[in-house]
């Protein structure tokens, strides 16, 4: 996603706004919580891709 934003021909402010929105979407997934839990529990992740 970051590479796509860098290649867009827009002002930096608009690209930063898009980056914030994309990050928020990724941060709100169940896979994020699974990643944290697997790290803390020292086990392999079971990502669902949701």
Automatic annotation (TrEMBL):
Protein family according to the UniProt entry: Belongs to the enoyl-CoA hydratase/isomerase family.
Molecular function GO labels: hydro-lyase activity
Superkingdom of the organism of origin: Bacteria
SUPFAM superfamilies: ClpP/crotonase (SSF52096)
Keyword flag Transmembrane: no
InterPro entries per UniProt: ClpP/crotonase-like_dom_sf (IPR029045), Enoyl-CoA_hydra/iso (IPR001753), Enoyl-CoA_hydra_C (IPR014748)
Keywords: Lyase
Protein name per Swiss-Prot or TrEMBL: Enoyl-CoA hydratase
One Pfam family hit: ECH_1
Organism: Kuenenia stuttgartiensis
């Amino acid at each position: 996603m970051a590479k796509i934003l860098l290649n867009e021909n827009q002002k930096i402010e608009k690209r930063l706004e898009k980056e914030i929105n994309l990050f928020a979407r990724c941060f709100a997934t169940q896979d994020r919580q699974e990643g944290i839990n697997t790290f803390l529990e020292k086990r392999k992740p079971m990502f669902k891709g949701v």
